[in-house]
Amino acid sequence: MSKTLSYGVDILFIIFAAYLFFCYFDIFLKRRKRTVLSVVGLVAFMAWQFEMSSVNLLPAYGNIIITSITTLFAVAQTYEGKFWNKCIFTIAFNAIWMLMETLSNYMLMTYCEQYAESEALGSVTSKLIFLIIIVALKKVFTDDEIKELPVRYSIMFVLIPTGSIYIMNNIFMLGYKVHSNRASFHSAITAVILLFMNILIFYIYMKLADDLQLRRITSVYEQQLDLCERHQQERELSILQLRDVRHNMKNNLVSILAYAENGDNEKIIGFVNEIMEEGGIKTSAVTNSGNIVIDSLIGYWYVAAKKAGIEFSVNLNIPMEMPFRGADICLILGNLLENAVEATQRAEGEKYIRLHMKYDKNNLLLFVENNYKGVLIKTKDKRLKSTKTDAGNHGVGIPSVYRIAVKYHGVVTIDDNVANRFLIRVVLYGKQK
Predict the structure, then answer these.
(1) Could you tell me if 88 and 146 are in contact, meaning their C-beta atoms sit under 8 angstroms apart?
(2) What is the pLDDT of residues 242-290, one digit of tens each?
(3) Residue 357: enclosing H or E segment and its boundaries?
(4) What is the signed CA dihedral for 331, 332, 335, 341, rounded to 10 degrees?
(5) Other CB atoms closer than 10 Å to residue 102's CB: what's the count?
(6) Cα distance between residue 276 and residue 250, in whole Å
(7) CA–CA–CA angle 419, 425, 426 (5° rounding)
């Protein structure tokens, strides 16, 4: 009967541990849709917790390593996000839990020495304190969007909780061997300091993520300002050229009329071409929809493509104003055109880029097609992965396209079924009237 009761208590503790698991990671990560792998991950986590509470044959470091691995496995199967960001929150989870157990042990040894040997009481105490900390973290971070950091920052953050686990385990074992009240006191203080250091990680993480996001947004607006300034200069130049043409219009018309009366069509054509070249007026495929952001971006990459010997065709049917933020359109269009120009430059044979934009019933359809040479890199969920090394600093990457599409409940589809032909479709849905 006592053995059955013991197993029952262990199962309750494991269920409580699973509850803490979801409470904690739900703050920072987004759950996947229910899958078999999620169940497998959770079962692995709970099975190891049961093994530690009932069998526990491994040494301390063995328990710590396997606990971290099983927790990370469960997180990887249950939640979305980058691997290294999952590592940060997983190791911090285990570090804080270990510190809670250490503090609980010191509290029982100091104030309730007669219960210090009770594993059940120590486990309940540590879990309750951990739950209080999780609730406090949720109050702080639930209302904020948890943004992902580049891998290099994530690796650095992993070192802090990992070091905390190592330091605390050594201090605990040292205090246990010394059997000194002073050593226990200083060990408890060390545990509190390490606890605050690990909690501080979340604050620093958020601040760095916000700063990175701010730099990305600033970069986008700087790009927009440059494009708008270039567009305005082009318009002013066109106005000045138009004034010159209008000033000389009378003399030009007299000459054209004289050629026409003599039936000299070739001279008329040559004379008109001379006027256009002298006035700087040239026909071009660059758009003039009135939407400054889009016209400027297309014009910029049109010139870049022409310099690289790429045939750039545009089919544009959009109004001056649309229910989408200019910064969002700038990110999507600028990134897709930049990728298209870079990829097409390495293509063999006839190089081309085809851009199609259409606005219909508050929805924006954007297609970019180009030829390329090489192999596309995709993630596990079939999304195209950006290969830019500075994507973290500028935020102008393929992940930005997906993120903005989600913002407008849109979709991004990639068609690479035809060899050496890349076609990406982006659909954004505006508010329906």
Answers:
(1) no
(2) 677 677 777 777 788 888 888 888 888 887 777 766 655 544 446 667 6
(3) strand 352-360
(4) -140
(5) 23
(6) 15
(7) 155
Number of H helices, E strands in the chain: 13, 5
Positive or negative CA dihedral for 176, 182, 186, 191? positive
What is the spatial distance between Cα 199 and Cα 116, in angstroms, rounded to a whole number? 27
What are the angstrom distances between the C-alpha of 154 and each of 59, 144, 172, 208, 209? 29, 19, 28, 11, 11
180: alpha, beta or left, given left = phi > 0 and alpha = psi -120 to 50? beta
The C-alpha atoms of residue 45 and residue 17 are separated, in whole angstroms, by 9
| Interval 294-343: pLDDT, tens | 877 788 888 888 888 999 998 888 887 888 887 788 778 888 888 899 88
Q: How many residues does the chain have?
A: 433
226 in Cβ contact with 330 (< 8 Å): no
